[in-house]
């Protein structure tokens, strides 16, 4: 049971790292609005560091499991985990940040008036 949990968490971290790598390669004008937030960039950096640490720990724990998860991650990450991570985890956070941004903008407009 613990191996299933470790595998699932590792593949989720792989999804975050894949998104981090994909967004990091984009230029300033090409980057989606959701990824321009400092909070989301910090979260992606944190998950990248956790991914590196978990990769090292997984190789120490079981190198066969690490290679199996590597193959699964390469084959399924773009299809399964990237959309899952973006829709489930980042969309609520982005909608919250967008709402807060509108509130701040409304306050600034009231102060200017």
Q: What is the structure about, briefly put?
A:
The protein is an all-alpha fold and 113 residues long. Helices cover 86% and strands 0% of the residues.
Structural class: mainly alpha
Q: Please tell me the overall pLDDT.
A: 81
Percentage of β-strand residues: under 5%
| Main beta-sheet strand count, sense and barrel state | none
Number of domains: 1
Q: How many individual helices?
A: 3
Q: pLDDT below 50 for ≥5 consecutive residues: which ranges? A: none
Rg of Cα set: 18 Å
Helix content range: over 70%
Shape: elongated
Give your account of this protein's structure:
The protein is mainly alpha-helical and 113 residues long. The chain has one domain (2-112). Helix content is 86%, strand content 0%. It is built from three helices and no strands. Helix 1 (2-24) crosses helix 2, helix 1 (2-24) packs across helix 3 and helix 2 packs antiparallel against helix 3. The longest helix is centred in the C-terminal third of the chain and has 50 residues, at 63-112. The model has no long low-confidence stretch (mean pLDDT 81).
